[in-house]
Amino acid sequence: MVRRMIEPCDRLRKAREKAGFDSPKSASDFHGWSEHTYKSHENGNRGIKHHVAKKYAEAFKVSASWLITGETAKVVSSETPEVFTVPVYGAAAGGVWMENEDEPIDDVREIPVTPDVRYPLHAQYARRVVGTSVSNRIRDGEYAIFVKYDNYPGGPAIGSLVDVERIRAGLREHTVKVFMGTHLQSDSAELAQQVTQQLSNDDSDTEVRIVGVAIGAYRTL
């Protein structure tokens, strides 16, 4: 037996019922919505955009990210139900390669983020940036928030900040750079001329690849 995939419309109906509304009409009348428009969202005839999902989420006391994607995550605070945490995958140097085992550092294992529903929560992670090579974007000691490359639609655009991994002799090293197509570039407030680095590698024993695309940053107080 093949089960139908649970869609946003199914979660919307479940949220309505859990909120105590026995029909789309009762929910629409209570909140002053167009019943026809709401029913088209709940029956799946119309997709639910992010701003609409936020409206329904606030009304039914659920997460907008859950309505859209079905993703759940740890809530940081009951006063900020739309803030979640993502794991820290160690550090990356903005300028040189840094050996990294993708383990949390300095006992910081998670940082708070406001979810972007365009990307699944399970594909988001953070690295602490070390150095000033990309200080125009993220300063030394701050955390870059990335989406894993395979979960970033269309790949990075020119000018995107990326997490780059180099694998050689069994070691995994990371650096944070600006993606410029065929090469990578620094973006430092301390450099008059930015440093470039080729993305391709002629060494058959070395693999260089983009593993994440930055979507934000976090700075501790």
How would you sum up this structure in a few lines?
The protein is α+β, with helices and mostly antiparallel strands and 221 residues long.
Label this structure with key terms.
221 residues, Umud Fragment, subunit A, 2 domains, 5 helices, 20% helix
**Count of DSSP H/I helices:** 5
> What's the gyration radius in Å?
21 Å
CATH-level-4 superfamily name of the largest domain: Umud Fragment, subunit A
Helix content: 10-25%
The average pLDDT value, as a whole number, equals: 82
Order of helices and strands: HHHHHEEEEEEEEEEE
- N-to-C CA distance: 53 Å
CATH architecture of the largest domain: Ribbon
Tell me the layout of helices and strands.
Layout: H1 8-18, H2 24-31, H3 35-42, H4 50-60, H5 64-69, E1 75-77, E2 80-93, E3 98-99, E4 110-113, E5 124-130, E6 143-148, E7 161-168, E8 171-179, E9 183-185, E10 196-198, E11 206-218
Helix pairs in contact: 2-3
Description:
By secondary structure, the protein is α+β, with helices and mostly antiparallel strands. The chain folds into two domains: 8-69, 434 Repressor (Amino-terminal Domain) (Orthogonal Bundle), CATH 1.10.260.40; 80-218, Umud Fragment, subunit A, CATH 2.10.109.10. Helix content is 20%, strand content 33%. It has helices spanning 8-18, 24-31, 35-42, 50-60, 64-69, and strands at residues 75-77, 80-93, 98-99, 110-113, 124-130, 143-148, 161-168, 171-179, 183-185, 196-198, 206-218. Strands 1, 2, 3, 4, 5, 6, 7, 8, 9, 10 and 11 form an eleven-stranded mixed beta sheet that branches. Residues 73-81 have low confidence and may be disordered.
